[in-house]
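Amino acids appear as letters; backbone shape is given numerically. Here is one record.
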Amino acid sequence: MNTKAIIAGVGMTPFGDHSDKTLKDLGLLAINQALSDSGLDFSSIEAVWAGSAGAPLITGQVCINGQVVLQDINDKQIPVINVENACATASTAFQQAAAMVELGAYDAVLAFGVEKLYHPERQRVGQVFMGCTDTTDPDVLTRFLGRKVDSAQRHSVFMDIYADMAQKYMDASGATKRHFAQIAAKNSYHGSLNEYAQFHNVLSVDDVMNARTIVDPLTLPMCSPLGDGAAAAVLVSPKMAKKLGLTTSVYVRSSVLASGANLENLPDLTASTALKAYQQAGIDPAEIDFVELHDATSPAEMMYYEALGLCGQGEGPALVEDGATSLGGRIPVSVSGGLIRKGHPIGATGLAQIFELTQQLRGLAGARQVEGAKVALAENGGGWLGNDAAAIVITVLSS
């Protein structure tokens, strides 16, 4: 790539139940915040990448989600590219937008993700998550789990997948259910400091341990909730940044998109993509100051510690015990509260991570500020194919 894209502005809605708002309402809230933050009017934007994943099935709005959200302001008829890539939807929109700026195609672009998941018919919500697996051959998932998923169950199929992964990780690493509860309790404290988070109550380790079991070893506070919301970012070229007079630039050091496949002997998707992201950014994992990762469940956070190179294989439990991933620790993780506390509106999650990284690198994160943060990483995965994620984006930002 020819030059680094710069984040000029970010915006985000609180995550939670927004049944009173339309997809358009939510999208514009985040977009207008990002535009105001950047100092640009929409008239200066040259292209838009619009992410939405579950909302088409929930709301019935398909195919032109981005155009619908922007219909009242897109008077220049600029291109709007709709993006859908499971839980990695918004980060994919961001990655594609950043790539086009870095290639010199545009000087100012917008990426946003917007999601609606709440619906009175719980079965319809379940169809969203089941649709993030291979529905052409459901036996693949059955073989992975060793059992068939009950289509009438109230929880997401991904809780079954993460529970299976957690059991295997416990057997291999010596991690315990209490370690996972420690992560959930840590993130509940982080989330209590985040005004955008879906949950603000602080939980103890025992609170998490004693909560209702979803799929063993996962209790309810270890699992990400349903949510609605939106997040957005304005990206500009160095030329445009100079024109705007940006004084607190946040640079896209790398943003790597990769896809899984149902093939034998493939490397772990997260680990291999992280290596590419580090190489493109020209850094070592030890240089990362904090991380926002895809903790759809608390065990997933611990497993990603190792895949991202934050610690060695099997060393995840020790990292938690040492408090290294807590705010004030050596490598704070999920300081926003993560998916389990901030919430997980799947089509918006990736850009919510970018929002958090940007505010932290600017020194504007308030009570949850990571002191001295200069380099940060976001990891956002989505879907399931064979025995690994179907899509992933890993992004490195720096101030």
Remarks:
- The chain has two domains: 6-119+228-251, 134-225+255-398.
